[in-house]
Amino acid sequence: MTRPPSAQTLAAFAAIVGDKGVLTSEGDKEPYLQEWRGLWHGKTPVVLRPSSTQQVADILKIANAAQCAIVPQSGNTGLVGGQTPNANGSEVALSLDRMTKIIAVDAANDTITVEAGATLKSVQDAAQAANRMFPLSLASEGTCRIGGNLSSNAGGLNVLAYGNARELCLGLEVVLADGRVLNTLNGLRKDNAGYDLRNIFIGAEGTLGIITAATLKLFPQVKHHATAFAAVPSPETALQLLSLAKQHSGNCLIAFELMADLCIEFAVRHMRQVRPFQSPWHVLLELADAPAGQLEAILETAMEQGLVTDAVLALNEQQRQSFWSLRESISESQKPEGGSIKHDISVPVSQVPRFIAEATPAVARFLPGCRFATFGHMGDGNLHFNVSQPIGMDKQAYLDKWHAMNDIVHGIAVGLGGSFSAEHGVGTLKVEDMRRYKSAVELDVMRGLKRLFDPNNILSPGRVVPDL
After folding, report:
1. What is the pTM of this model?
2. 182 SS3 class
3. 196 contact partners, CB below 8 Å, separation of at least 6
4. Helix (H) or strand (E) holding 249
5. Which residue in 77, 125, 220, 429 is a FRET match for 136, CA 20 to 30 A apart?
6. Please, which residues bridge with residue 215 across strands?
7. What are the b/e assignments for 162-199, b being 16+ CB within 10 Å?
8. Other Cβ atoms within 10 Å of 106 Cβ, number
9. Nearest residue to 46 (alpha-carbon basis) of 70, 22, 18, 20
């Protein structure tokens, strides 16, 4: 059982990080305590901002001895509440936003080693400067940080071609709960010398250790993108278009995004985006370094088969960026429409149309008048099944239905062989879902890992794993 930090413990923390690494005023702490969607607002006696791995290690040694809870935070862009200290002020927030170094770029090995507080955009830029590419791409890439990306096993726009954050990481530096430092920053693509310790911490959301650095994979830069916005009649035809695009382009297909028309309507209304055309559903698809004319040929065949009713191809980089800006503005554009209940689910790609066909009427029966802003990464089966409040309904009354609606949607996803958490993680929001949908064996193994790596439960207690 953790305890609030004593004055002596707080003084010891402050001595480690110095004046620049301690925030105690309410105004200075506020940006670290408010979750992006406004669902959680925490309290903490102090925000610690260490500048080195050694400082993180020294903090955790003291915290473990004092049984003081530490909540690690990267860019504070998480959507499940795991990075927000609790409301009673007993937990200490630890931000990695001062640990931003690009440690090394090894272009010949196609790797980059960075501190965990480096923003995703800064890693992309460093790779580009070395004539390489780091393919992880998220709407929040200017703010989110590598430690958080790895701790949540972030997905994003290019999973279809390059995989989740897990597939893009070769090694980690992690500070364990007792202050020991585990270093596997070796840049090796083959290493069967014992257990793969790296993968224990990726996706663990800071509950087993604090990631302080990572060695990541780089790839050759894409020389040419072929990008199109297509109108499709239904999710079923979108699935057929995905199959057609894979068949004719192979590994060149790097993105395939599905969007309901309401998403486009919101983006046009609130984010100054331009609607390409009117259609019940939209697809944004992109090929990398494909033969000239291949995307046009795919779309022509799709139109002949009735899979696509209209399409616009990006003729230059500016038009390509405008397509992606429309897609990436969808999340933000839902805010002005009032309450939005979010679902980050995944199902087998083949089951995406069936999920939408079952979940949409089920939620509509539960709450008539709600509006469906469904979008996501159809190419890997991950949908953001977001439901906006009925027009005129009180926002809080709507948000009070969050868990009841989640039960409906998550039950359908799991029933189709899917998951209630595709890329956002579990955090605080979905702990009950872990209890409901994970098997007893899975939970026992997770609890065993937590007790092994963090026996005093000081790292993000109450997150991810229930009943500790």
Report:
1. 0.94
2. strand
3. none
4. helix 235-249
5. 429
6. 113, 171
7. bbbbeebbbbbbbbbbbbebbebbebeeeeeeeeeebe
8. 14
9. 22
Closest to 45 measured CA to CA, from 78, 71, 82: 71
Residue among 104, 223, 241 nearest 173 (CA): 104
Closest to 151 measured CA to CA, from 217, 100, 204, 80: 204
- Burial of 290 (C-beta count, 10 Å sphere; 0-12/13-18/19+): buried
Q: How far apart are CA 301 and CA 237, in angstroms?
A: 13
Strand (E) or helix (H) holding 406: helix 402-415
CA nearest neighbour of 432 among 383, 467, 468, 385: 467
Please measure the distance between the N-terminal and C-terminal CA atoms of the chain and give it in whole angstroms: 10
Strand partners, 214: 114, 172
Residue 163 gets the label, from left (phi > 0), alpha (psi -120 to 50) or beta, of left
47-48 sheet: strands from edge to edge: 22-23, 47-48, 92-95, 70-73
* pLDDT tens, position by position, 226-235: 999 999 999 9
- Judge whether 118 and 75 are in contact, CB under 8 Å: no
- Beta partners for residue 115, in sequence order: 213
CB 36 within 8 A of CB 158: no
Q: Residue 126: in which H helix or E strand, if any?
A: helix 120-129
The H-or-E segment that residue 22 falls in is strand 22-23
Query: Would you state the structure tokens that stand for residue 357, as one six-digit string?
Result: 């066909």
Query: Which residue's entry shows tokens 């609607």?
Result: 275
Give the C-alpha separation, 416 to 352, whole Å: 9
Q: In this structure, what token pair is assigned to residue 108?
A: 């010949």
pLDDT digits (tens, 9 = 90+) for 281-337: 999 999 999 999 999 999 999 999 999 999 999 999 999 999 999 999 999 999 999
In angstroms, the CA 373 to CA 334 distance is 8
| pLDDT cut 90: percent of the chain above it | 96
Distance CA 338, CA 336 (A): 5
Q: Which residues pair with 210 in a beta bridge?
A: 175
340-381, pLDDT tens digit by residue? 999 999 999 999 999 999 999 999 999 999 999 999 999 999
Residue type, 428: T
